[in-house]
Amino acid sequence: MQIDNRVTGKTRLIGVMGNPIEHSISPQLHNTISKHLGIDLVYVPLKVEKSDLENAVKGLKALNFVGFNVTIPYKKEVMKFLDDNTKEALLMGAVNTVKNIDGRFYGYNTDAEGFSRSFKEETGVGFKGKKVLIIGAGGVARAISVKIALEGAKKIFIVNRTLSKAEEISELINNNVVNVAHCLYSEDDSVSSIFEESDVVINTTSAGMHPNEDVLPLEQPIKFSTNQIIYDVIYNPAKTKFLLEAEVSGCKTVNGLGMLFYQGIYAYEIWTGVKIPDEMKKELFKSFKDILQK
Ligand code: NAP
To answer: What is the rounded distance in angstroms from the CA atom of residue 254 to the CA atom of residue 233?
Structure first.
């Protein structure tokens, strides 16, 4: 019988903590990277109940994990159990990646960096000087808005059906990053004209996500402009109704697959200090899309 040498006494551990966790494809992504780079790490799913979160974090420290990802519903709550969080993660109010540095746990947010890398890779442009409209004001909207402000957008409009949440994010940006943010109620009359004039529109709501594929993020009628970039953080389905309508109007469209992929790439780089070669990233992204779109 052939001996399986993939895991030995020297193998170090990383993982993803959340609940549910069964749907996650992060184990496949990270274990493929380690295998191809010849790095002796194994990435495992870590399903944790809410009442056990603090003990689970302590347990990973006791077991000397290299680090771990954090996913729904613990991205905010985990922060109080860590030794420190980056300034960006504090502003974004969420941590999705933790690194063990000499026995201390540090929290990072790679979702926003993943979004930013995906946007630049897939559109060829950045946010400097751009007018950006963000639909939604949840966790993803907060992280992305902070990132876009840090990257030099000229104006950021945050539109949400619950105005108070959009207000909170725009105040956070104006008071802590740069004074470029405005908030709007999604039924406000001015939304359609601001939408039309924006260079980039990003849907960060879950409207249109499987199984509610008929839903649009804005109920009022809107008109796309052909030179706009329309980004939807949803990746299931690969093309939401919103993206399909934008595509028909001649806009450049991007879905959330790249964000998911690049947040993982950045996390891996944080844990290992290894820069993943561009050629490998390209191939990996292709295979990643294939397994997610099956
Ligand atoms: P969240 O904190 O729960 O926020 C959800 C947002 O969507 C809120 O602004 C909510 O409005 C709005 N919303 C929900 N249903 C709506 C509807 N029918 N019409 C209009 N607005 C609606 O969620 P989140 O963590 O930010 O996640 C948002 C989306 O991002 C999800 O679809 C998630 O799958 C996706 N995501 C993608 C990635 C990626 O890597 N691509 C990573 C993380 C999350 P109210 O404030 O009024 O309730």
So the answer is: 8
Which residues are near ligand 1 (CB < 6 Å)?
Answer: 111, 136-141, 160-162, 165, 204-207, 209, 215, 217, 233-235, 256, 259-260, 263
Q: Tens digits of per-residue pLDDT, 10-34?
A: 999 999 999 999 999 999 999 999 9
Close Cβ partners of 79 (under 8 Å, ≥ 6 residues apart): 85, 89, 90, 94, 95, 107
pTM > 0.90 = yes
* Nearest one of 207, 209, 235 to 291, comparing CA atoms: 235
* Structural class in CATH, domain 12-109+258-293: alpha beta
Same-fold call for 12-109+258-293 versus 112-255: yes
Q: Which atom of ligand 1 is nearest to the CA of 114?
A: 40
